[in-house]
Design a protein that fits this description.
The chain has 186 residues and is of the alpha+beta class. The chain has 2 domains: 84 residues, no CATH class; 96 residues, Lipocalin, CATH 2.40.128. Helices cover 42% and strands 34% of the residues. The protein is built from 4 helices and 8 strands. The protein has an 8-stranded antiparallel beta barrel. The longest helix is centred in the middle third of the chain and has 32 residues. The radius of gyration is 28 Å and the shape is rod-shaped. The N and C termini lie far apart (84 Å).
Amino acid sequence: MKTLVKAVKIGLVVVVCFALLWTSACATKGQTGAAIGAGTGALIGGLANMHGSWGATALIGAGVGAGIGYLIGNEQDKKDAAQRQKATEEELKPLAGTTWQVISINPKPKEDYKSIVTHFRPDGKVVTTKTNMDGKVETVTEWYRIVGSTLILSQHNYVENTRFKIDDDKLIIDYGNGSTVLQRVS
């Protein structure tokens, strides 16, 4: 009888492990790690104490395993996200390494500027330097990439897709509800 109870307990743990693994197939790596860690921890915890409080050690093992699995998977999610931020050389053409000065904005912004200069760096960052009428300088750094005739600008809290066109030494950016024309500086 004890052998049958032991086999049933092991079978239940194995079923739980496979269920967790199956349900985590489409989750983030952090969630997948937590599910696999929980199942593995439950199995190890349950098998470690087959003669005593099997359920308690399985639960403790599941909790510890879920935490460790999540930490490992979450770090991989962070690495993947950082890798996606990097644009390929092809996605940066033809703006990489160019500098432009704003010559018109439509509709006119609420605040006037002495100058607005935008530099598209070859590393996928675009740096815009605004000089206010009082001489105060403001700098904004964003990520950029190009897909067809769409310029994609992003920071940690937003993504903006704009249409763009280069006409000789002018860069025309259409935001849908407005546009900006820039003159090539270099």
